Amino acid sequence: MVREHAVLEVKLAETEAFENAFATAIAIISASPGCRNVRLEHCVEQANRYLLLVEWDSLEAHTQGFRGSPAYEEWRARLHHFYEPMPTVEHYEAVLSSQAAS
Amino acid sequence: MVREHAVLEVKLAETEAFENAFATAIAIISASPGCRNVRLEHCVEQANRYLLLVEWDSLEAHTQGFRGSPAYEEWRARLHHFYEPMPTVEHYEAVLSSQAAS
Questions:
Q1: pTM (2 decimals)?
Q2: Is residue B41 included in any domain, yes or no?
Q3: B3 touches chain A (CB under 8 A)
Q4: Residue A100 domain-assigned?
Q5: Is A74 an 8 Å CB contact of chain B?
Q6: Total structural domains in chain B?
Q7: What ipTM was estimated for this complex?
Q8: Cis upstream peptide for A70 (omega within 30°)
Q9: What is the pLDDT along chain A (102 residues), one digit of tens a residue?
């Protein structure tokens, strides 16, 4: 499993519209082959900051599969205009987790 | 649930020592009341970058409970000297997740 990670800075006046757009766009990424789950979370300390976490079967499922698909153009069109600046997307692999981790 | 989130920049020559130190220090934070699970992940794109994700029952379980405890001093002593610069710790709350999310 590889985790896609991005901290999203959303234009201040558009957070509600962004959440509404994401609520429908999440189906696009979730349907992509190798996508295990998608989480959007909201920052307690910064009102226009969000965290996107997506679990993929592999790095390629995201970087080649999803990003190379027509679905990605739809995802971009629905969401990218909310971001300022554009987020940095990175990938993370597990090193350690506590015994209680699910 | 509140997720503690920090991107950790570890001194370049000390990543192996950091991982070894974390492997024992994880027991300290995991034992803190309200700590559900702890994950340390390694960045694919940047060799000395890590992601710390900790699920807490509440914000206060982390900010008051753990940080106000003697255990936190031990956690700091074991790990903070590896970071350069010191990480920004934030907290996130769920907004949306895909149906496949666990």
A1: 0.94
A2: yes
A3: yes
A4: no
A5: no
A6: 1
A7: 0.94
A8: no
A9: 999 999 999 999 999 999 999 999 999 999 999 999 999 999 999 999 999 999 999 999 999 999 999 999 999 999 999 999 999 999 999 999 996 444
